Amino acid sequence: MSRPPTLTLPPCARAYRLDTDRGEFAVHDARPDGAPIGTALLVPGFTGSKEDFIALLAPLAAAGFRAVAVDGRGQHESPGPRDERAYAQRELALDVLAQARAVQQAGNGPLHLLGHSLGGLITRAAVLLDAAPFRSLTALSSGPAAIETSQQARVRMLIDALGSLGMEDVWRAMRELDPPEAADAETPPEIGAFLHRRWLNTVPEQLIATGRQMLAEPDRVARLARTGLPVHVVSGALDYAWPVPSMDDMARRLSARRTVIEGAEHSPNVEHPEKTAEALTGFWSGVG
């Protein structure tokens, strides 16, 4: 679970509901002072939300890019039905394509797509449905297929708990299952309250359906390579969801740019946002 370092939007950003042909989605939209040289659509991961990208917004805008971070359906401030079928990967990928249509505007430059963790699997699925809207794809801390075996048991336990317990009870149980690096982190009270609120706002069926996706995701790297879309694989130096060597190999198979953010783990976007933004904007500028 990503822990944003702040909940305060920078002056360049505003929060609103993005109207698309597949419904409304809560977003944070950051814009540079002048005309954007490109636009980035940022898709969060499992148990995440648009707030996971807050620390990236100002540096991305300062580099000349518009950045739109989104809550997917059933995540935090975006509504979603109490039906697991609504969160099939294809449905979520179609949402991403609808969001892309809604944010693309004349004069805003090419559109770059980024997915963090689970968001990397969803954005890959969107590109495999239709790569045409995008100039590039960035997989941020997201691997080639299902999550690491050691993490699968944790996700299965969560899915089982969500099927029989209320969200508050599951929240308490989750705190006992956090990885050591999360358990050791000192979380400011306002961030802790936000994480709790976000969890309670998330639709449990969304978590069940997307958790199963992370357990069963096939390797679609070869299909992605055939799209010809430029890809950037970014991760921390350590990752508990996908081993770093598996992301190295994925980048090789894609002939992709590969960036490792030293000192970061599964969420470079919150752990080292300036370094991460520098890597992202360097890639986007090179393919834009």
Automatic annotation (TrEMBL):
It holds the Pfam family Abhydrolase_6. Residues 41-279 form the AB hydrolase-1 domain. It comes from the Bacteria. Keywords: Hydrolase. InterPro entries: AB_hydrolase, AB_hydrolase_1, AB_hydrolase_fold. This is Alpha/beta hydrolase. GO terms for molecular function: hydrolase activity.
